[in-house]
Amino acid sequence: RYGSVLLDVITVALAARVMRRWAGWDAGVLAAVLLALSPLLWAYAREIRAYVAVPLLTVLILALTERLLGHPRARRVWIALLAVELLLLYTHNLSVTVVAWLNLVVGGVWLAGRQWRRLALWVAGQGALLLAYLPWLLGQAPSGTPLNTPPRPSPELVWDIWRGYFAPLPVMIGAETAVE
Questions:
Q1: Does 43 have pLDDT greater than 90?
Q2: Is 92 helix (H, G, I), strand (E, B) or coil?
Q3: Which of 50, 60, 141, 152 makes the best surface tag, with the fewest CB within 10 Å?
Q4: Is the pLDDT of residue 151 over 60?
């Protein structure tokens, strides 16, 4: 479990650094305190699962996105961002929402700024990322949860998606106490 704790500590430090760069020292300290006191991150740090890497990779994507939007000609930033996105996608299936939001933000910024060349490069890079993600995605065995089961059109579809993302599986309720 020490690896999970280390990843959690690195997440707190990286988030504090990003916030300090954006909003000053006080904001960086506040971000570190809020993340260090987050019960969700505490639970992740106690587990030996991919969950603990998701917040770290998400903060890293946030930092790289800020650099990409500030310095769009830096080829290393483009490559690093795509690599971290792919790593995040292969880490956990819930990371698809992070990548979706990233695409909305970056695509929206470049669309609003009418930066067509950068937008085209972004779309091409995300297309390559999708191709690299397909082997993992197509090789997934259905788990029986609404998240990994093909949707059936019905009025309950929205509830199934919500439950798949935010509600624990019935077998997992109370399981965290068995890990302690």
A1: no
A2: coil
A3: 141
A4: no
Residue 54 pLDDT grade (very low, low, confident, very high; cuts 50, 70, 90): confident
End-to-end CA distance of the chain: 11
Q: Which residues contact 54 (CB under 8 A, 6 or more apart)?
A: 44, 88, 91, 92, 94, 95, 98
pTM recorded for the entire structure = 0.70
- Enumerate residues 6+ apart whose C-beta is below 8 A from 179: 46, 47
The one-character DSSP state at 47 is S
How high is the pLDDT of residue 159? 72
Phi, psi of 115, deg, nearest 5? -95, 75
Which is higher by pLDDT, 97 or 79? 79
The residue whose two tokens read 């280390």 is 6
Is the predicted pLDDT of residue 34 greater than 70, yes or no? yes
CA distance 152 to 18: 41
Q: How many angstroms separate the Cα of 4 from the Cα of each of 10, 19, 41, 67, 140? A: 10, 23, 10, 27, 24
Task: Give CA separation, 91 vs 43, 45, 154, in Å.
Answer: 17, 15, 30
Q: What is the distance between the alpha carbons of residues 66 and 60, in angstroms, rounded to a whole number?
A: 10
Q: What is the pLDDT of residue 116?
A: 92
